[in-house]
């Protein structure tokens, strides 16, 4: 907390997510979120709890939500991918950009799964 910045806590639902896939080996994926956004991330039960300054949490949540969705779909990702997910967070419509990337990734995954099944 710097300059009297307001501290907040945001909970994200992680039900159905493989914790190892989300957190990464030795929590490397979560450590990357901490490094990029200067927030605290804790996995407790079916929730990921992000805490820190208001601006930092607002920037970290869309990236962590994207990671949760990928982990829920069992789509692999690693530390370098997280920095890529974070690209554009400073853009005026950062949330939209992250969601667009998530939708594109999900479409690719769906196409791969359909090709494997049929």
Question: Mind explaining what this structure looks like?
Answer:
Helix content is 56%, strand content 16%. It is of the alpha+beta class and 118 residues long. It has a single domain, classed as Ribosomal Protein S8, Chain: A, domain 1 (2-Layer Sandwich). Helix 2 packs parallel to helix 4 and helix 3 packs parallel to helix 5. The protein is globular, with a radius of gyration of 15 Å. The N and C termini lie far apart (52 Å).
Short description:
It contains five helices and three strands. It is of the alpha+beta class and 118 residues long. The chain has a three-stranded antiparallel β-sheet.
What structural keywords apply?
single chain; 118 residues; alpha+beta; Ribosomal Protein S8, Chain: A, domain 1; 5 helices
Poorly predicted runs are: none
In DSSP terms (H or I, runs of 4 or more residues), the helix count works out at 5
Element-level helix/strand string: EHHEEHHH
Q: Please, what is the CATH homologous superfamily?
A: K Homology domain, type 1
Q: Which structural class is indicated by helix and strand composition?
A: alpha+beta
Q: Label the CATH architecture.
A: 2-Layer Sandwich
C-alpha geometry = globular
Sheet having the most strands: 3 strands, antiparallel
CATH class category label: Alpha Beta
Total beta strands: 3
Report Rg: 15 Å
Query: Percent helix among the residues?
Result: 55-70%
Task: Enumerate the strands of the largest sheet in spatial order, edge to edge or round the barrel.
Answer: 1-3-2
- Cα(first) to Cα(last) distance is 52 Å
Number of domains: 1
Quote the average pLDDT.
86
Instruction: Tell me the strand percentage band.
Output: 15-25%
In CATH terms, what is the fold-level topology? Ribosomal Protein S8, Chain: A, domain 1
